[in-house]
Structures are given as structure tokens and as C-alpha cells.
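Q:
Got a chain?
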Amino acid sequence: MSKKKVLVLGAGLIGKAIAIDLCRRHLVTSADRDPAALDALARQHPITPLVLDVTDRKALAKAVLPFDLIIGAVPGALGFATLRTVIEAGRNVVDISFFPEDPLALDEIAREKNVTAVVDCGVAPGLCNIIAGHHHRQSPLTSYECLVGGLPSTPEWPFGYKAVFSPADVIEEYTRPVHMRVNGRNVEREALSEIEEMEWEGVGTLEAFNTDGLRTLLTTMPEVPHLVERTLRYPGHAELMKVFRATGLFSPEPIDVDGTLVSPLRLTSKLLFPLWEMKPNDEDLTVMRVTLKNAEGTHVHDLLDRFDREGGISSMARTTGYTCTAVAELLLQGSFTRKGICPPELVGADGSCFQAVMDHLEERGVQCTQRTVEMQLGRA
């Protein structure tokens, strides 16, 4: 296959990993508003730097035109508008931005522009959706549960956490109402609720709690009676975040402080983000378990991935970024051509695409094991 021209929007932890992986096979340009981040990337890899502010819609629309594929790896707050601009410019796109808006709202525009736009294409959402789509196509699911977390390898007081993706998106997860399906009914829960401790082989004790990560699955799988996602952290983190939230520290609404209007969220972010930032010697891990049930039995997919010391790439960048590059390759090769907004579960529903994604991850050392308990006497 001849080399294609790919533009990666965002040169952060994950966007950088995506660009590095793709530049081994394609002509890659990395775009970011931070020249220093681009220079560091271009010095070490055959990647063309492009200083670009994606909030400048005219500049973005012009910048994407020469490329065969666009990768969206910007913070969630910028994701929806950036994706819309790329689609309106008529360019195929694979996006990992975890924005609060519904990506399916752009489906009509994408179809009109004859664009393939794979959204939410990270690890969760992303890989877990691909797994769900694969099993649902084989036999309709009756239950789906995803437990997932990106964590520091060594937890430090008081948070036991490092932000391995955009910290602003983390806080968004802790405040947004949780939508899930239980016993055939769509229900709403509070974020950080129903905290449950569990033992995790190779990691130790973790806690699981509700977060709003199901995304498109609630729409694309309306017949599945049980759909749940829960985030994993080290014990104590969720309760601490609930205290922050209850105190009002996550509120974006300005308050009067001695005559000056101050946004608690902005202040909290300024204080928290330096403490949550991954330092050069910090290492992380990603843990995920997807449990699915259908007529064939109970299927469990387990992932435990760790920081790449040789490449200096975080585990979250590996698991998120390499899922993205796997799907990017499918589009570049013409193996996935469905038009419109395409959630990852639609990619997984194609058997050959599912296997290609899993092979791609395996080649990069991201191992997702599967075990199945077959149906016996009508029970899983």
C-alpha cells in the first residue's frame, strides 16, 4: 500500500503516540498550537509539524484539505466543534476526543459529505465498543459491563491518581450524570456513586464506581437490557472527589470572592492539574474488563497494560492511541467504508475488522485476553 497523508490534530500524550505509530507507514503531519510540543516530536521522528489553533475554524478547514485522513486528538471541550469542521470539509476522520455532545447529531452532515467518521475510538469508549459489536453481531447481547481505569503504577497520597489524559475531561466524568440501562430500563445515576471494592490480579485492590461512559451503545444497542460502565481507581479516590464536588469546587459558575468573580472549577483545575500531571519518571497502567452475555455464553475480555519504558509511551497512550491507529489503518486501506458517524461498535461488527484491530494491538504488545463460559442447560 502506498503511503497516505495523515493529519493528527493534537500533540498531547495520546496524539503524540498516534503520530509516532502512524509515521512508520504514512506521511504524518502533527498539528498543535504549542510549537514546543511539535518541535520535540519532529526532532525525533519523521513527522511534519504544523502550528494550528483548532478553534480557528477557517484555518482548520483549510489545513485538513490536503490529507487522506484526519485524526482528532484534542481535549473534549474542543472535540465536537473540531469534528464538525473536519466533516464539513469532506475529510474522513477517526476521533478520540471525549466530548459531552452526542456525536450522532453529526450523522446527517457526514452522510451528505460522504464522510466516514469513526468517533470515540480510544480504549473506553473505543476498544470495549469494538468488542461489544463483535459479540453482538455473532449473537445478540443480553448484558454488557465494562470496568476500566487508567492509573499510576504507584499511587501517591492524597489522590492515588495521575491524569493520563486531559484532566479537564476527568473532572467532567466526575460531574456528568451517568446514563445506563438496567433490567431493560434506561436509568440515570449520580457520577461517583455505588462505590465497590474488588481485587484485581497484578494490581491489587481497586474501587469501581459509576461514570457516564456508555456513549453511543445506549443508542446503537437499544435491545440489550443491561448496559453498564464503571471507572476503576485506587481506594479512596472516589470519596475524595465526591467531597470536592459537594463543596462546589467542580462548579463552573463564578462566585464572588471579596469583590472578584472566580470560577471554582478554574481555580480547582489550576491547583489540581500540576499535582495530577504525569512527570517524566512516572509510570502508568491501564486495566479493563469487558463482560458480555449472549446465547453462546459469558465472554470476558481482560486487558492489563503497562507503561512502555523503552519507548517512553504511557499505557493510556498505547491502549487509546493504538486502537485509534488500528481503525485508521482500516480506513486508509479501504477495509471500512461505511459513511456517516460510525461508533466503534460498528467497526467491531465486521469480523475481519475486529480481528485486524486485535492483531494490530497484539503486534504492539497490547494484549487483550478472552475467555468464554459456554451455555449449559440454559444457563451461562
Remarks:
- The chain has 13 helices and 18 strands.
- The longest strand covers residues 141-152.
- Residues 315-332 form the longest helix (18 residues).
- The radius of gyration is 20 Å.
